[in-house]
Amino acid sequence: MSFMKLGAASALAMMMATGGALAKSDIVVAMQLEPPHLDPTGAAAGAIDSVLYSNVFEGLTRFDADGSIIPGLARDWEISEDGRVYTFSLAEGVTFHDGTTMDAEDVKFSLDRARAEDSANAQKVLFEGIETVEVVDPLTVKVTLSEPDGSFLFNMAWGDAVIVAPESIDDIKQAPIGTGAFKFANWVQGDNITLERNPDYWGEAAKLDKVTFKFISDPTAAFSAVMAEDVDVFTAFPAPENLPQFEDDPRFEVIVGSTEGETILAMNNKVEPLDDVKVRKAISHAIDRQAIVDGAQFGLGTPIGTHFAPHHPDYVDLTGNSQHDPELAKELLAEAGYEDGFETTLKLPPPSYARRGGEILASQLRAVGIETEISNLEWAQWLEQVFNGKDFGLTIVSHTEPMDINIYARPDYYFQYDNPDFQALMDELSRTTDPEARSELLKQAQTIISEDYVNGYLFQLATPTVAKAGVRGLWKDAPTQAVDMTGVYWE
Amino acid sequence: MLRFAFKRLVSLSLSLVVASVVIFLFVEVVPGDPAAYMLGMNATEETLAALRDQLGLSGTLVERYLSWVGGMLRGDFGTSYTYRTPVSEMIGERLWISLPLALYALTLSTLIAFPAGIWAASKRGSVADVSVMGLTQLGVAIPNFWFAMLMVLVFSINLRWFSAGGFAGWESGFLPAMKSLTLPAIALALPQASILARVMRSSLLDTLSEDFIRTARAKGLTKRQALWRHALRNALIPVLTIIGLQFSFLMAGAIIIENVFSLPGLGRMVFQAISARDLIVVESVVMLLVFAVIVVNFAVDIAYAAVDPRLRVRG
Fold first, then answer.
1. Beta-carbon neighbour count of residue B67 at 10 Å?
2. Which residues in chain A land under pLDDT 70?
């Protein structure tokens, strides 16, 4: 009798003990695109970073949820007086998922590999300023730059600059070995990737045991998967028209965040008549941004007046430079000698912001007398014709790289803006390390391109996340293309 | 017979060579550089060149064609540009979804079509016949992706019997895997079953009006016995031909259904490979499908000739 009582009591105790742990410890996160392979240092595909950034791979520094740069594997650093030498102190006791130690040699290997001549790193520009990487001792690395670069710590936070090990580099594309709080477990190509908690993580351990990333490309299938509760979270949900339905459903929560994607109507600054600043100004005034945000994005997105993210502390609101004013646009066109308007091409890549936005934009331009010949391109065609071939008049594209205003200093960049003053300003910016001075320079830079009407600035791309009620710790904004699961848990 | 087989074999090889040239040229003239697609907007010219070298894209057209065909003859389909895994492995993996899905759909369609067709034929002009004909007309007319979405709405979102898409994987067991293929298989089977039932019915009706059936009836068989014992077997030939055609369609043509249910099958792999300019995958998969169709036709030709001597002369 007493034995049975004891048994019942211990069963009860066990039930109570597990009660606390009943919160789910695994999660299914869906996204539209599947990574082509799993090497963040070897392709531009954002999906690679979405799955692996901070979860599996870590760099010297890293992006935080609000976009600020915080220490990663480098816990501390010293910058020399002249701004050229960075001495990083690495975290102690860090091991890769295969058990090998992460030390200064691995950092040197990773940085040297990324900047090597035969490197296939998609963001090789980030490493161009590095002159030498020296191992001081196992936990200290000294990086010497050829000239001071105020954005070096920022550059090192990119997914393309994560630390990899020479021992596991050959298989990285299929079996990535990093230092993160999760380790890669399995990849069912075409369907999902599974990560598992890394029990030996050097920092604060992840709260979830298992994360499954599921790839669902079709917007209708995405809607069904969320409604059927096949997935717990859908990041960058592809059908904004369905969001109100999720908002009304107590089972779900909709989180609309901002991204680093400046969506612009890019203009070819070297072809007639777009080489005339008056014509570009006229086009900018012909644009009704809010109509595009409402029509193409179902109201998601913040109008911008320059090539800079509105959530950034240094952002200047310059939308006033290009208010929607069709009459003014017509006057400017007449002044430039195009009172009867003109015809140009509008080449649109696949995303809906471009395809839907392009139709609306074409009618806004027609209202001031500019006829556009629309062609819909696949990404590969767009890269070839527009981006590399510069064979276009107008195009719509979202520039998703963070803090990329420096592309305006590259005269051979596809929109071909060539302004020596701006190029000098960017040189000064990279030589400047003082935060206040940098902020001032960034503001000047935004103003110059806005007043030169280099491109039509439309809106900052928003990213809606649909999550089941009870999921906590998801990033709201996307300061880089990452779905950081290290702090996510079920309530 | 041997000479006939040899002649057929020569024409088979010629077809394969022509097909490989056509496929290669069509895919290679598609604009868009795979390396540029992979490296995106910030890539420098030297990085692009380095990647093109790694991918083996820097040779001339003829060199690349020969290395592709040479590889295939040795059973090496090349390495995918984007995934960087052997294409043969990828095809193998996807085939484990596409093939069972096609067989599943074909089985369902046969299981529906045979009874329906036979029933309708045996009760010609009755309410049963009219309703089978009406339903199959509807089955042919309904687009299968729409029907698929309707089923998702009912069985996944409302009833929660099935997941709305994705593939459980064979390693999770036979039943869970088959369960995730069930809705797609039904969606694929519906129009196929409708066509098959109509073919079954009309073929059976044709046979039932033949002289040998009248003889069988005259010998004292009931209508029913004559149908099952004599008519059905003779009516099956056109039905089997249609089943064969449907199977190759199901293997290659499930693209839309695979997208609706986000199943990682062969069709979706080709679809993704085209937009990513993963040319080697497109070329190799299309070549494999062409090869399969040509070989099946060859086998059918030989089989026909074995059965029917008249065909050997004509061939």
1. 14
2. 1-22
How much is the pLDDT for A111?
A: 94
What residues of A are in contact with residue B83 (Cβ under 8 Å)? 36-37, 173, 189
> What's the pLDDT tens digit per position in A383-420?
888 988 899 999 999 998 888 899 999 999 999 999 99
Are A102 and A95 spatial neighbours (Cβ–Cβ below 8 Å)? yes
Of B77, B98, B95, B99, nearest to B86 (Cα)? B77
**Best residue in A29, A171, A189, A234 to probe B by mutation, most B CBs within 10 Å?**
A189
Query: For testing the chain B interface, which of A158, A220, A414 should be mutated: the one with the most B CBs within 10 Å?
Result: A220
Largest CA distance in chain B: 87
ipTM of this predicted complex? 0.73
Helix or strand run (H / E) with residue A457: strand A456-468
Does B209 lie at the interface with A, CB-CB under 8 angstroms? no
**Pick from B175, B143, B154, B177: nearest CA to B257:** B143
**Are the CB atoms for B224 and B119 separated by under 8 Å?**
no
Give pLDDT, residue B250. Answer: 80
Residues of B (77-136) whose Cβ lies below 8 Å from A = 82-85, 90, 93-94
- Of how many residues is chain A composed? 491
Q: ∠B108-A217-A243 over CA atoms, to 5°?
A: 110
> Which residue ranges make up each domain of chain B?
94-314
Tell me, what's the pLDDT at B211?
Answer: 87
Nearest-neighbour CA in chain A from B127: distance (Å): 38
> Could you check whether the bond before residue A273 is cis, i.e. omega within 30 degrees of 0?
yes
In DSSP terms, A344 is beta-bridged to A372
The pLDDT, as a whole number, for residue A13 is 45
Chain B residue with minimal CA distance to A224? B164
Task: Inspect the interface and report whether the beta carbons of A218 and B152 lie closer than 8 Å.
Answer: no
Place B311 in a pLDDT band, splitting at 50, 70 and 90.
low
Contacting residues of B for A378, CB less than 8 Å apart: 32, 275
Domain B94-314 has CATH 3.40.440.10: no
Listing DSSP states for B255-293 in one string gives HHHHHHTT---HHHHHHHHHHTT-HHHHHHHHHHHHHHH
The lowest-confidence range among A217-221, B90-94, B250-254 is: B250-254
A-to-B residue pairs, Cβ atoms closer than 8 angstroms: 150
- Give the A window 349-368 contacts with B, CB below 8 Å: 350
Higher pLDDT among residues B274 and A6, named by residue = B274
Contact list in A for residue B84 (CB cut-off 8 A) is: 36-37, 173-174
Phi, psi of A50 (to 5 degrees): -55, -40
Closest C-alpha among B241, B251, B259 to residue B290: B251
Residues of B in contact with A220 (CB under 8 A): 149, 260
- pLDDT tens-digit series, residues B193-244: 999 999 999 988 988 888 888 888 888 888 888 888 888 877 887 787 788 7
- Please answer whether residues A407 and A413 qualify as being in contact, where contact means their C-beta atoms are separated by less than 8 angstroms: yes
Nearest-CA distance A191 → chain B (Å): 6
- Rounded-to-integer distance, Cα B112 and Cα B197, Å: 8
CA distance B194 to chain A (A): 26
